[in-house]
Structure formats: structure tokens, C-alpha cells
Design goal:
single chain, about 260 residues, alpha+beta, 7-stranded mixed sheet, globular
């Protein structure tokens, strides 16, 4: 909502400025609408490009991403102090290109994902898998809530939190879920990596079939839709998780 209000104020100021310098009315309208229209076209194009057929997770090249690699290595030193070790590093040719680093905790069934988007910044996410294909993600950015997600993909976001603080918040959510009779899965790292990678590629495929998903993402970003997940899991699901199974069965019956 804040971004939407800023854009609205900027457009009003531009409109007023053009009236002061006596630009014709219709030219004002065109000049006022052109920037947001071009932005929407760019976002739609980038959205389609980022879910194009043939996208694969590839080995990170030795050259071309040196500064990003060094930045992640510095972060790696920090999370290593509380039990995480790297188990995978890949990249995907989206816009911008995304480097994906995966770390596993030495005692807990928790995976730490650090994604480096270059100019787009760095994202921090912790993920654990539970029985019946339920996944818990704890993210450092509420922008992760602006993407379509399945009912069984639980998300909590804490804007600006990272490293150990984000990890402890994830553990609190895990304890709450376990206390509600949900069992966390502990599987070999290669099995979990295959599951995560397959889930990512399947999600890309789902988005590819939904032509207007990037338009919805623009609207959700402008209206701060993702902030609905900016609270702990126990606040999002105060009565437990039974309705997740009910909604999932209803969705399956409608197919």
C-alpha cells in the first residue's frame, strides 16, 4: 500500500507540473500513463521470461559471478557458527540470474536457502518438510508472500530478520506445528534436495500455465498483500492445521 500511495503522489505531482508548464491536456494524460504502462509491460514480459520452458538448475560458473560468490561466502561464515553446512550451490537463468545456495543444519531437519539476485539483492529462507507434503518456510522478506502458493506451503515472514534470529523463529514455528501433531520429515540430503528442486520447477510450470500471475504479483506488491504472512505461524493458525487437510481434499475433489 505504501508503494501504491507513493506512486499516486508522484503521478499527481507530475500532472500538476505539466499543468504549470501548460502541456496540453491529452499529452498530460499520455505522459502520465506511459511510465506505469511501460513498467507493467516490462513486469509481464519478465514474468513470462522467468517461467519459460526449459529452465534448469545449473552448476554456477567459475567466472562471471565472483562478487556474488564472495558475498555469499561471507554470509556462510556467519551461519556456519550455528550449525549450517553447505550441501548444494546452483543457479537459474531468470531475470535477474539467481544463485541458489543450500545449507543443512547438523542436528535439526532445517535447510537454509540463500538466493543472490545481483542488483536484486539477497534473500534468506529457512525450510523444513513435514508429513503429507506440508512445508514450512520462514523468510526474511514479506515479498515472498506476493507469489501464488499451495495450501500446504506454510509461510511466515519477518522483514529484515536473518541469520540466527531467523533460524530461532523457524524453530519456534516447528515446535508449534509438532505440538499440533505434525511430524517433521528427516530424509537424506540428496532426497531433500531433489524434493526442493522438483518443487521449484513444478511451481515454475504452474506459473507458466497462469498467464496473468505476474500481473497479480504487481497488484499484490502495490497493495502489500504479502504482509498477511508477516506474523508467526501460531498466529496464522491459532486453531491448528486441520482445515489445511480439509481444503486440500476439497480442491482435489474439484479437479
Amino acid at each position: 500500500m505504501k508503494l501504491f500511495l507513493i506512486m499516486l503522489v508522484v503521478m499527481i505531482c507530475i500532472f500538476y507540473l505539466m499543468s504549470v508548464i501548460q502541456v496540453t491536456y491529452w499529452l498530460r494524460i499520455v505522459l502520465l500513463l506511459l511510465p506505469p504502462l511501460l513498467l507493467i509491460i516490462f513486469c509481464l514480459g519478465a514474468g513470462r521470461y522467468n517461467v519459460r520452458p526449459g529452465l534448469k538448475l545449473l552448476k554456477i560458473p567459475e567466472k562471471g559471478y565472483e562478487s556474488r560468490i564472495r558475498a555469499v561466502q561471507d554470509i556462510e561464515q556467519t551461519i556456519r557458527n550455528f550449525g549450517f553446512a553447505k550441501i548444494d550451490e546452483v543457479y537459474i537463468r531468470t531475470l535477474p540470474v539467481c544463485l541458489i545456495y543450500t545449507y543443512k543444519h547438523d542436528t535439526e531437519p532445517v535447510y537454509y536457502f540463500i538466493n543472490h539476485y545481483g542488483p536484486g539483492g539477497i534473500s534468506y529462507k529457512l525450510v523444513s518438510k513435514f508429513d503429507d507434503e506440508i512445508t514450512l518456510m520462514t523468510s526474511a522478506s514479506y515479498n515472498d508472500g506476493n507469489f501464488p502458493r499451495r495450501k500446504k506451503f506454510l509461510l511466515q515472514t519477518f522483514q529484515g530478520k536473518k541469520y540466527y534470529d531467523l533460524y530461532t523463529l523457524h524453530l519456534v514455528a516447528m515446535d508449534y506445528m509438532k505440538n499440533n501433531n505434525m511430524r517433521v520429515e528427516t530424509l537424506p540430503d540428496d532426497v531433500m534436495l531433489a524434493y526442493f528442486n522438483d518443487s521449484m520447477l513444478k511451481n515454475i510450470e504452474r506459473l507458466r500455465k497462469d498467464f496473468f500471475w505476474s500481473l497479480r504479483m504487481i497488484i499484490w506488491t502495490l497493495t502489500d498483500y504479502g504482509k498477511r504472512y508477516a506474523r508467526p505461524i501460531e498466529e496464522q493458525y491459532p486453531s491448528g492445521f486441520d482445515h489445511i487437510y480439509i481444503e486440500d481434499k476439497l480442491a482435489a475433489n474439484l479437479k
